[in-house]
What does this fold into?
Amino acid sequence: MRCRDPELPAFASPACSLDYDAMKQVQQLRKALDSLDSWLCPPATLSTYSGLLRHCCQLRALAEGKRVHAHIIRSGLSRHLFLGNQLVNMYGRCGSLKDAQTTFNQMLERDTSSWNSLISAYVRHGRDSGAFQLFQQMQKEGVKPDEVTFVCILNAAQTLVQGKHVHAFVTESGCESNIKVATALLKMYAKCGSLEDAIEIFQKMEHKDLVCWTSMIVAYCQNDNGGMALKLFKEMLQEGVEPDEITFVSVLNACTSPALLAQGKMIHTRIMKSNLGSDVALGTALVNMYGKCGSWEDALAIFKNMPNRDVISWTAMITAYTQNGHGKAALQLFEQMLQEGLKPNKVTFVTIFDACANSAFLEEGRLIHARIADSEEESDVVVGTAILNMYSKCGNLEDAQKMFNRISERDVVLWNSIINTYCQHGHGRVALQLFGLMQYAGTTPNSVTFLSILSACSHSGFVDEGCHYFSSEKAYHGMTLTDHHYSCLIDLLSRGGLLDEAEDFLSTAPFQPSPAIWMTLLGACRIYGDFERGKRIAEQLLQLSSQDPAAYVALSNMYAAAGRWDDVANVRKLMADRHLKKQRGSTTIEINKMLHEFAGNELQKQERLVQ
It folds into this structure.
C-alpha cells in the first residue's frame, strides 16, 4: 500500500475517484495551469490548449478543465472550431452536461464533430431521448452524420422503432459496411430483442473482428440462446480469432445449467492456458458459471483462489450458495464479507434476502432487514421487492404488506410481487383489488401481472372475471399471449367445471399444448367424473409424453375412480414394461437445525444439517 505524498492534497474529481498515479498527474496539470497564469509565460498555442484539454478528459478533472476554458477565452481562441469541439467533449466526459450544452450553444460555427461530442455527452449521462432530439435537430440543420454519429446514437436506441429509424439513415449514407457501425447495429437489435435482425447484420459482415464475434455471442446470451452462443464461440476459435477477457466473460454467461457444465469446464481450461486466470471479472464469471451449473464446490474453489475479490465476486459466491440450496453457507459468507469491510451492493442484498426466503432462515432475514431499515438500500424498489418476497415465501403476509407500504416509488415488479403474494395466500379478491389500484396509480401491467391475476381467479373460482382479464390482455393491452396464459385459463375453466369450454378452447390454441396443460384438464375430468373425456385426453397425453409416469398415474386414477380395476392393472403393467415408477411424495421438517426428510410413511435415514 502506497503512502500518500504529503505535498499532494486529497483530491477527488467530481466524475471519479482518482488513485495515487492520477493524483500525481493532476498535480502536474495544476502546475502547468499555474505557469500559464504567470505574466512571464509566453502566450499559449492552440496545441498547448488542446493537450491540456486532453489531459483533463483523461483525468476527469472538471475544475482544471474550467480553468483551461477560462484561459482560452482570455486568449481570444474561444471561437476556434477545433477547441470548441474539445471543450464540449471535455465537459461531457467530466460529468457536466450543462456546461457541454452551454459551450455548444455559444459556438458560432459547428460541424459534425461538434454534434457528435454533444450527442455523446447526452448518451453518457443516460439522456437517450435528448440524444435522439439532437440527432433529429442535426439533420434539420443540414449537418450530415458520420460513422461516429451512428455508433453513438445506436447506443441510445431504446426501442426497435428508434433503432430501425437510425438503420435507414445508415443504409442511405452507405455506412452499413463500416465494421464499427455494423457492430453497433448488431448490439442495438440484440438489446431491442430482435435476434433475427442481429444475426442478419452479423452474417452480412465481410470482415469480422473480435468485437463483432463477442457482440454476437452477447446477443445470443441476451436472448436466452446459450447453445448458439457456445456454438458461435467454437466457430470463432476455428476462424483463428483469439478471445479476450470480455469474450470469455460473455461465453461463460451462456453456461447456465448442469447440462452445460462440461462445456463450461472446457472454457475454464482455455482461460487458464491464456494466462488470464487472475482477472477479477473472469474469476467472478467462473464463480457464476459453476454456481448456475450446480457445482458450488468448483465455484468455491475459484473464489478462494482469486488473488483479488471485490463486492461483485463475493456476491457471485453468495449467489452460488443460494442457487444450490445452501442458505446457511450464504449467510455465513455474507457475514464474512461484512467483517472484511466490504459494503454490500443492491445485488448482494437481493441475493441474501433470496437466501432467507425459507422459514428456517426468517429470523436471519429479519436481522439483515433491521440493519438497513430506513436506509437508502431499503427504499430501493429492487431491494424492497426482494424483502417483500422473502416475507411472502416465509408465509408472513403482514410483514410483506408492511414492506410494500414503505416503498414510495413502485414499479410493475413490486406490484406483481404483492399481487402474487395475496394470490399465493388464497386472497384472490384482494389480489384483484390491488390490480385495480396498480392501474389507478398509473403502472402498466405486463404479462407476469396477468399470470398472477389469472391464477388468483382460478384458485378463487372467479371464472367470469378470469375470462374477462384474459380477453383484455390482447384487446386492451396489446400483449402477446403465451402458453402460460393459456394454461392458466384452462386451469380456470377446468376448476369451474366448464370442461367443454376448456377442451374447445385448447383445440383452438395457437400452439401445440404441452403435456402439463393436458394434465390440468385430465385432473379436472377425474374430479368431475367425466370418464369418457378423461380417457380420450389421457390417451392423447400418452402419445405426447410416453415416458412421463404422471400421465400413467392420472389414467390409472381415472380407472380406479370408475371401479375399472382390470384397466388399472393394465396401466400399471404398461408402466412396469416401460420401466416407469411413480415418484413418491416427500417433505422435510427442521428440528434443532437438522433437516429430516419423509417420503411416504418412512423416515429417510439420511439426515443433514440445515445448509
